[in-house]
Amino acid sequence: MFQISDDERKIAYFSMEIAMESDIPTYSGGLGVLAGDTLRSAADLEIPLVAITLCYDSGYFFQEVVQGRQIEREVQWEFSSEFERLPNIIELDIQDKKFKVGGWLYKMQGETGFEIPIILLDSNIEGNEHWQKKFTHILYDATPFQRVVQEMILGMGGVKMLQSLGLHNIQTHHMNEGHAAFGIFELLKKYKNDLEEVKKRCIFTTHTPVPAGHDHFNHDLIRDVFRDRLPENYKELGGEYDLNMSLLALNGSRYCNGVAQKHAVVSRKMFPGYEIDGITNGIHNRFWVNPYLQHVLDDRIPGWTMNYQLLQNVWDIGNYELWQTHQRAKKKLMDYEKSHSWVLLDENKLTIGFARRITEYKRPTLIFDQVERLGKICKKRVQFIFAGKSHPRDEQGKGYIKQISDMSDYLYDSYDIGVVFLGAYDMDLAKLLVSGVDVWLNNPRRYMEASGTSGMKATLNGVLNFSVLDGWWIEGYQKDPMAGWAIGCGPEDPKATQHPDSWDASDLYTKLEREIIPLYYNNRDGWSERMKHAIRLSSYFNTHRMVEEYALRGWQLTPQTRWKTNLDY
Ligand SMILES: *Cc1c(COP(=O)(O)O)cnc(C)c1O
């Protein structure tokens, strides 16, 4: 049997999506990007971890936007050139049939050369029937039946594949979101239905307060797929009325956490009676920094890529130098924009960026709430760049893309304001945007944003956040209010969820007019100083710090474990 060379791996990290590189399409958005950054930091810090995900032969989808309409194109990619085929094959049962699951290997390498193996499971295996080969065809676009099977492959298949690979020292199965919770069924088999033995070996991270983000499956469907292979107490574990994957994960884990402090509080309300810790998300700074700033940081703050706390020393960079460095990143974004859109932008104008999944709770069109007021404030001075994908079946989300595109025509004709919606959103475009705009806008409906990470990417690149106090920004703004601006009332204000949208929009216009625009055009030194406040926040909001918190509280690694810690938060 083939074995992964280091069998001292202690943690298995399960995630439905992992964004390894921008052009490997095994991710759809925030969850996958976070998983990728987690593994990048785990590799840098030499954490003994192995990751499991699925190998989607058609990925998510490639996005084209034509006249405000999102068109989804199937992704063509040759993953055999990126991954190495593992010889191991395991078997799973579905209904009254068996099917085979194979694996591919990708190695993520850290700063010191240490490698995290990522195992990508697929059912496109010789011997499987045609319909079975399609189980791992595409990410997040499946019938409930296919979805159950995908999650079965991830959870149960993952546990079996680890055994087949000879990884017998796994002490922690980390379910990154509830998708992998069927792994608990597989472990129950292994430990003769002793739930306590299983719980000792599992932890769970929940990622969203949006109810639709938690998978529920009809019990009839579950019984049809699993037949007599369900544990006796499956309803106690997963719910009486339907099978809730988050509940199953909570019941099968020794430790659970949300992804920002506020999100942990909200999650405890969603799942009363469970202890839910908070570990605030981060980003992998070296991966997300733009090349111009990286050059400056490498020169001025040597060693910063191993110890992100050193970013506290950002004050050593001069105002003029920092401004010029940012202008180069901005020019790069503008060059890209020029070759992908007809709208004329100007690199000397204050530029506001908004890019994330385009869906209702993110309120992507809030900025247009009072369009004439916006027009007057921004006339000839401010321009906007939008990007982001809508889920293929989210018609409302796609409607927002159309609205933004219509606004673009109107504001251009009436106020000489450039508004662009760029298609083909992926990590490469995200990187260009978070480093090339001046202000990063985020205005979700309150308590719907678990953490959000794009704002952290902006911060690292010296881009100032302009955001509703939700998710990570509650903490970011509290640590340093000079790193950006807050939109609307504070998170503890009883009116926070009762205000109509127009309250937030009004506050947004006022701050834009009175604070942001004047500072940008009249006080370049003041702006540059604020950029340093932003960059300094990244000494905390990064995945090195986050991974160390998981290591201590979640994975319970002991100090003897090989693990390069140098941090003290
Ligand atoms: C960072 C990132 C996200 C997540 O952004 P949020 O602010 O958390 O919504 C989504 N997609 C891509 C491509 C990203 O790089």
How large, in whole angstroms, is the Cα Rg?
24 Å
Q: What's the number of extended β-strand segments?
A: 19
Please report which band the strand proportion falls in: under 5%, 5-15%, 15-25%, 25-35%, 35-45% or over 45%.
15-25%
CATH topology name of the largest domain, in short, is: Rossmann fold
Anisotropy-based shape:
globular
Number of helices: 20
Q: Write down the CATH class of the largest domain.
A: Alpha Beta
Helix content: 25-40%
Can you summarize the main beta sheet?
9 strands, mixed
| Ligands present | pyridoxal-5'-phosphate
Q: How many angstroms separate the termini?
A: 43 Å
**Whole-number average pLDDT?**
95
In CATH terms, the superfamily of the largest domain is: Glycogen Phosphorylase B
Q: What is the correct CATH architecture of the largest domain?
A: 3-Layer(aba) Sandwich
Class by helix and strand content?
Answer: alpha/beta
**Tally of discrete structural domains:** 2
Low-confidence stretches: none
How are the strands ordered across the major sheet? 5-6-7-2-1-8-9-12-13
What does this structure look like?
- It is an enzyme of class 2 (transferase).
- Pfam families: Phosphorylase (PF00343).
- The protein is of the alpha/beta class and 569 residues long.
- The protein has 20 helices and 19 strands.
- A nine-stranded mixed β-sheet has the order 5-6-7-2-1-8-9-12-13. It has a six-stranded parallel β-sheet with strand order 16-15-14-17-18-19, sandwiched between helices. A two-stranded antiparallel sheet has the order 3-4.
- The mean pLDDT is 95.
- Pyridoxal-5'-phosphate binds at residues 29-30, 33, 356-357, 425-427, 430, 452-454, 457.
